[in-house]
Amino acid sequence: MMSKRNNELVEAYRDSAFEQLVKIGKSLGNVSRLKLLDNLAQGKKSVEDLAKSVGLTTGTASKNLQLLKKVGLVKESRDKNFIFYKLASEKIAQMISLLIDISEESLPELRNLEASLKTKNSRLQHLSVADLKQEMLTSNPYVIDLRPRSEYMTGHLPGAHNVPYSAFNIDQLNLPKDQNIVVYCRGRLCAYSDVLGEQIYQKGFNVQVFNHTVGEWNQKVAS
């Protein structure tokens, strides 16, 4: 039987350990910080680029990044007059993906949001990782990466063509008529692939949407 003193030591340790976990939880309880982490899952970026991507002022983005840095979720580096951030490890991107998984399973509000987006673009076929892998093996689709060039250069799906959403012009695209078109962007919480995929569909192409990240693709294909 443990002594009262030992029980107190165990409880004190456990309480202190959970207090450390709470620091991570608190850092995630903010929309702006979650958007910053989700954006950094695409690769290293400057504070200015991050601020623009998530719709914050540079000062507000910097403040939130410092909070994430304090709990070890991001790392900071400098290049001349610019400050850059990246995720502290690949586990952070996996954590965001898992958080989305849990939210989809637990929150009908998120499921309804996703269903509403698909309903508005109901003519588009949505692909899982397994579906896309099979498509690539059997039908040689024309894959479009809608992310900014810097994110595309960090890593992209096999054979993908970069058409950044910020420069997207359906009338200037020269797409093959004899191939399925697959569009993807930053994952399940990014609507660009659905919205712009619908524009491509309206031009008479067979369009499929891959609403997962490059990181999710790499992880599941490799497993």
What is the topological layout?
Blueprint: H1 4-28, H2 31-40, E1 45-46, H3 47-54, H4 58-70, E2 74-79, E3 82-87, H5 90-106, H6 108-120, E4 125-127, H7 129-138, E5 142-145, H8 149-154, E6 161-162, E7 181-184, H9 192-201, E8 207-210, H10 214-222
Helix pairs in contact: 2-3, 3-4
Contiguous helical run count: 10
Specify the overall morphology.
globular
Low-confidence stretches are none
Biggest sheet strand line-up: 4-8-7-5-6
Rounded average pLDDT? 94
- The helix-strand sequence is HHEHHEEHHEHEHEEHEH
Report how far the terminal alpha carbons are from each other.
45 Å
Find the structural class using helix and strand composition. alpha/beta
Computed Rg? 21 Å
Question: What does this entry look like structurally?
Answer:
This protein is of the alpha/beta class and 223 residues long. Helices cover 54% and strands 14% of the residues. The protein contains ten helices and eight strands. Strand 2 (74-79) and strand 3 form a beta hairpin. Helix 2 (31-40) packs across helix 3. The longest helix is centred in the first third of the chain and has 25 residues, at 4-28. It is globular. The termini are far apart.
Nutshell version of this structure?
The protein is α/β, with parallel strands linked by helices. Helix content is about 55%, strand content about 15%. Helix 2 (about 30-40) crosses helix 3 (about 45-55) and helix 3 (about 45-55) crosses helix 4.
